[in-house]
Amino acid sequence: MSVKLHVHGELGDKISFGYRFTHYERLENGRLRVWFDNGEHMDADVLVGDDGGGSKVRHQYKPEVKTFDTGGRALYTKVFLDDERRKELNMLIGDGSMRCLINPEVDAPFSLLLEDIAFKPNIEQFPESMSLNVKISPQQDYLYAVFACSPEWFGIPDEQLFQLKVLNCCLLLKRKPNIGTHK
């Protein structure tokens, strides 16, 4: 279960979506007043900056923390699985256990991680059986895929890489040489 799913289940209708954060201020009573680009504000006890490495919340809270280039790039996705796709996946990675494809012998090393994420039947009913006040949405099994490499491997500038659509990423990956398999 992901942190987002867990938090959403715990907080339910107390989470608001579709607002663009501009800034927050701390009120005298210790609460936070959060301002949005539409001029509205909301008072809260907790503010979660869930907008990635360039988080505006984190930047206001800890402006001295700087991001830096680690020298690596990672593309990740999930592909929802039904019985037919699972059969195709099993032909590719075998018994469903995690697979990592690596080729450290080239100038720009890379790795591909594939993992079959399978949920137990009726996981959404699990918290009810434990008498918890948590709602979990039904989950669909999926393939988790992560491709990690150095920027040089792609052979294109980051600006272009970050603009690629999924299909173009797949075509770019398809042009590269075959790689070995490690379990």
Describe this structure in words.
The chain is an alpha+beta fold and 183 residues long. The protein has 2 domains: 59 residues, no CATH class; 110 residues, no CATH class. 26% of the residues lie in helices and 25% in strands. It contains 7 helices and 8 strands. The strands form 2 sheets. The chain has a 5-stranded antiparallel β-sheet with strand order 4-7-6-5-8. A 3-stranded antiparallel β-sheet has the order 1-2-3. Strand 5 and strand 6 form a beta hairpin. The N terminus and C terminus are likely disordered.
User: Approximately what portion of the residues adopt beta-strand conformation?
Assistant: 25-35%
The helix content is: 25-40%
The Cα radius of gyration reads 21 Å
Based on CA inertia axes, which overall geometry fits? flat
* Biggest beta sheet attributes: 5 strands, antiparallel
Average of the residue pLDDT scores: 75
Number of domains: 2
| Strand order in space, largest sheet | 4-7-6-5-8
How far apart, in Å, are the first and last alpha carbons?
A: 24 Å
Low-confidence stretches: 1-6, 178-183
